[in-house]
Amino acid sequence: MSKSSLIKTLIVSILLFTTSCKGQTPPGFEKNIDDGEQNSEYVYKSGSINGIGKWYQGREIAHVMGFQGMEWLERPEREKEENVSLLIKNMNIQPKDDIADIGAGSGYHVFKMAPLAKEGTVYAIDIQPEMLQAIETKRKALDLKNIELIQGAEKTTNLPANSVDKILMVDVYHEFSFPVEMLASMKEALRNNGQIYMIEYRLEDSNIPIKTIHKMSEEQTVKEFEANGFVLQENISNLPWQHCMVFVHAPE
After folding, report:
1. Using CA atoms, how far apart are residues 222 and 131, in angstroms rounded to an integer?
2. What does UniProt give as the signal peptide span (predicted)?
């Protein structure tokens, strides 16, 4: 065999070996994934620099905002920008409500809900221990007994089954690495007449100064929730920048 032919054979062998090692992982996806994911509903391809290269129902999933952004969550202008007081009114919180704040962050909403659900429990759930520690520090300082901290995970809220009347998610769903699994976990935790309050920056409004990948449209959100056993009860359109979409269990 000539030197030129030998080189060509080696190149072809290397390419075949590389392809076989990648299995079914599409080109452009450089993260390690397990065999279970490769045959899932998720699609892996290159996308935004602010995304994780993983797509669900045509939407690229965004990177999680780290605990280093905690100060932004507590910014003084947040009430004016988001009218959080009005969001809390939208939730119609009753004294005995059990509520889960999924992706609670520093607890900005937790501490507004806890005094209203004074005979119930507010579960503060986050995947980052640093966020939970910040909530615990403030909880102790305020001596609030009805806040319970839960360490979440990528695929589960870690809430008990049939344990909550309301679930709040503020600007967090679009960052879930496993939205299908998380919605299944929420469905199990939510009581029969329970509601999910899904708060996301409106993709339909280009004037909202937030990166596109950190926004969601009503159409896309409904598409994803319906695929996982929920229906849109109402989209309360009274917030300055965000959707306030209320989802409930789909009829059997």
Report:
1. 29
2. 1-23
126 and 194 assigned to the same domain = yes
The secondary structure of 164-221 as a DSSP string is: EEEEEEES-GGG-S-HHHHHHHHHHHEEEEEEEEEEEEETT-TTS-S-GGGEE-HHHH
Report the CATH number at residue 174: 3.40.50.150
- Please tell me the pTM assigned to this model: 0.84
Residue 27 has what pLDDT?
32
Number of domains composing the chain? 2
Q: Are residues 71 and 57 in the same domain?
A: no
Contact 195, 232 (CB under 8 A): no
Tokens of 112: 């507004």
**Are both 125 and 156 inside the same structural domain?**
yes
Please state, in angstroms and rounded to a whole number, the distance separating the CA atoms of residues 104 and 110: 7
Q: Note whether 121 and 48 are same-domain residues.
A: no
Domain region containing 188 = 67-249
Digit-coded pLDDT (tens) for 181-222: 999 999 999 999 999 999 999 999 999 999 999 999 999 999
Percentage of the chain exceeding pLDDT 90: 79
> Which amino acid makes up residue 70?
M
